[in-house]
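Example record used in the benchmark description.
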Amino acid sequence: MRIGVPKEIVPGETRIAASPDSIRKFTALGVEVLVESGAGAGAQMSDEVLAEAGAHIVVDAKTVYGDADLVTKVRAPLCDGNAADELSYMNSDTVLVGLLAPLQQREQVDRYASHGVTAFAMELIPRISRAQSMDALSSQSNIAGYKAVIDAADHFGRILPMMMTAAGTVAPARVVVLGAGVAGLQAIATAKRLGALVSAFDVRPAVKEQVESLGAKFISVDADAGDAETAGGYAREMGDLYKARQAALIHETLAKQDICITTAQIPGKPAPELITEAMVKDMKPGSVIVDLAVESGGNCALSAYDQVVVRHGVTIIGHANYPARVPVDTSTLYARNLFNFIQPMVNRENSSLEIDWEDEVIRGALLTKDGAVVNPALQGQEI
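Model output (structure tokens):
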């Protein structure tokens, strides 16, 4: 069996779908790993380092795609029919594994099916105990939450912790996190470690204990927001009455804060707009907003895609693809997720690809098989 790791060609993508550690582990299973030359440059993984780990360095992408039985990717392959049509490089029986954004790129999933590719989306791996080590969304969001706070601190004109000096005491900065998922919880923990006073908002009452365990204050509209969480643990879009009460609470809270980290997203839908222009106007001059949801439309009405802007005296950070801003660690963690997902598919006796189609994890992540789109999440069912 051969695994192919092509260079990511989406602009701004610095990650690689492999690491020296994952290559050594695959090699120990008898799997050959083909890596396109330069694929790890953005993540500080040279061809020499990857080759030393056991990878075969290949000069061009066509060879990687053409010779591989299974291709691992960070971002979905380009397949728009132009000169960089990565899908056209694949054989019809290739297995594709990556962060394929199937809910956002539905037409592209149809192309995988028509090309005969068996595709797995790492975003759709079920949130069950056995699959925690495969959860790429969590591994990438974790680092994004950390980096968001670091970026906010860099743009903020003051220090975050309380500091007592001979010249007087500096009050701690106030940080609010909107959305207490994986990224939000890491943002809370990071801001607390830096000495800020932290509060957090989420529509799901179930996360209150997690927020408070990190030393932050939990802010909520209701003691019980009702059906605010899907079976998969994601936030569900709320009704108009709830949204109105939520907006009033967030407006009041933001006026007292120095930094706001927004992380709220709804799978398969545009990110909810939590911060209006009126709310930004009422924030303190010099405040900072980091919008981690900018790729899906943004939580702040004034966020600019992949830009840092100043509006009404507030700095709004809208970097796209936050995990790619910390590519060494995010690549390493993602490579572990991939290995943990793929390893059970490898036959230990002859190192061939052997997929258990009845496995719950396989069924959850599977997008296309035998020329058809088969995932329930793409057929109107909630994840």
